Amino acid sequence: MARRKQATVLAIAAALAVGIAPSALGGASAVAATGPGAGAAALASTGTVQQQGGPLVVAAGEEGAVTTRVEVYLSRYIQGRVRARLLLPTPPYDAGDEDLSDQYGSVTSTCAVNGGAFQPCSWDQPQYVTALPDADMNWKLTYDIRVDASSGAERFGDLTATLELFDENGLVTDRGPVAFRFVKGTPEANLRTTVLARDKSGVLWQYPSGGRTDQPLRARKRIGGGWNAYTAITSVSWRNAAGHGDLVALDRSGVLWYYEGSNNPDAPFKPRQKVATGWERYTALASYGHGLVARDKDGVLWRFNRGGASAPVPLFESRTRIGGGWNTYDAIAAPPGGYNAAARDRAGVLWAYGSGYPTYKPRIRVGGGWNTYDALAWTENLDGARSSADFIARDKATGYLWLYQGFYNQDSVLVPVGPRTKIGWGWGIYDMII
After folding, report:
1. Total domain count, the chain
2. Are residues 259 and 274 in the same domain?
3. What CATH number should be reported for the domain holding residue 41?
4. Which of 184, 208, 243 is the last residue of a domain?
5. How far is residue 168's CA from residue 80's CA, in Å, rounded to a whole number?
6. Rounded mean pLDDT of 283-309?
7. pTM over 0.85
8. Which of 169, 184, 199 is the last residue of a domain?
9. Does 32 score more than 60 pLDDT?
10. Residues 162 and 201 in one domain
11. 72 and 205 share a domain?
12. Which of 155, 297, 301, 410 has the lowest tally of Cβ within 10 angstroms?
């Protein structure tokens, strides 16, 4: 969800203001309190404001808007216009701090009265009042408050607002609580990553992450065929399920190709563009920020920083030697857009390399037994858990796909941490997982 400055503070705290034609009301009357500005509304009735169905549960994410209905039985006859406002507790951050509003997510709302059309009812300062269309008064008033929240807004938790009704003189006649409960929802597509897998016929498939522990991966989508032309494919930026993220691919003749992200989730890559020739000397590629690392046939690992940002095809600057001896590894994996790496040696021991310049930090031993897997890959976070990244591994005997949470250790090295979680089966049909 894009940043909406008007909605960075809880927009459900939008004031409701509605003009209602006067009409005689029967029933009990109540003594009106002094105006809300005077802070003496304690005598207003509290039993006439009734929220239907209990607290409104708002999933912060892509689930969409939900609506609560509040019925108000006016406690006394009011001449002129009847106005209403919804007051929330003080927000937990400064409304003008855009960085914090991104951290906490944003909330928008629309409101309607007596079955009328919904209109925006957001606010950006305490006690801000937004007018709604006039409505014919009946013996009761019905307010519908529709709320939508982006990822991060679950931090608001349980909030209880106060709905106040008052007349043209500012005298409060009725008030009562309206409750909201913000819970974690499914992150929006631009906040969820993807896993790519190439089947043995050369078709590339994309699995969008679900962003939830009960759904780390969603159903696959076909990207296209012909990808068995490549001996290596790797990201050169982080990827998301909205179609963001770039790839490079090395074909068997040594040509390096670039696939730019399209920002179209149904066709996530634009047509390929030729980057360079002569790359047949390299036997493995992995992401390094927006650049690459490449292992040559002698086991030397080289770093290529990305340049030519204004060019239609990315250029890679002159290579920098990281070090030799990388032929000891039969698998090298790096998080998309990251500067760490993991490598498995031929004895099945997994090693982690931390981010450093101009080379990686010295490796640390993660553990043995990793030769039970025949495919390893770092990804962005898949399941919404509070890990820095996720590490996935396919069991070569069963075809199960396993997930390990990734965390930075005390030396700032990204390492996969167990216990592992099974997140898929039948993955033996693929010969490459990215």
Report:
1. 2
2. yes
3. 2.60.40.10
4. 184
5. 7
6. 91
7. no
8. 184
9. no
10. no
11. no
12. 410
My answer on whether 150 and 205 are in the same domain is: no
376 near 393, Cβ under 8 Å? yes
Q: How many residues does the chain have?
A: 434
Distance of CA 66 to the CA centre of its chain: 19
Radius of gyration in angstroms for the set of CA atoms belonging to the chain, rounded to a whole number: 29
Q: Are residues 193 and 180 in the same domain?
A: no
pLDDT of residue 139: 67
Tokens, residue 40? 């003496």
Q: How far apart are CA 418 and CA 420, in angstroms?
A: 5
CB 233 within 8 Å of CB 432:
yes
pLDDT, one tens digit per residue, over 317-348 is: 789 999 999 999 999 999 998 899 999 999 99
Q: What are phi and psi of 301, to 5 degrees?
A: -100, 130
Residues 108 and 176 in one domain: yes
Three state DSSP letters for the chain: CCCCHHHCCCHHHCCCEEEEECCCCCCCCCCCCCCHHHCCCCCCECCCEEECCCCEEEEECCCCCEEEEEEECCCCCCCCCCEEEEECCCCCCCCCCHHHHHHHCCEEEEEEECCCCCEECCCCCCCCCCEEEEEECCCCEEEEEEEEECCCHHHHCEEEEEEEEECCCCCEEEEEEEEEEEEECCCCHHHCCEEEEEECCCCEEEEEEEEECCEEECCCEEEECCHHHEEEEEECCCCCCCCCCCEEEEECCCCEEEECECCCCCCCECCCEEEECCHHHEEEEEEECCEEEEEECCCCEEEECEECCCCCCCEECCCEEEECCHHHEEEEECCCCCCCEEEEECCCCEEEECCCCCCCCCCEEEECCHHHEEEEEEECCCCCCCCCEEEEEEECCCCCEEEEEEEECCCCCEEEEEEEEEEECCHHHEEEEC
Name beta bridge partners: 132: 18
Task: Look at the block and give the residue holding tokens 């400055």.
Answer: 5
Cα dihedral 374, 380, 384, 386 sign:
positive
What is the residue range of 125's domain?
A: 5-184
For 357-407, the pLDDT digits (tens) are 778 999 999 999 999 999 999 999 998 887 789 999 999 999 999 999 999
pLDDT category at 14 given cuts 50, 70, 90 is very low
Provide the residue type at 347 as one letter: A
One domain, residues 131 and 225: no
Between residues 54 and 161, the one the model is more confident about: 54
The CATH number for 307's domain is 2.120.10
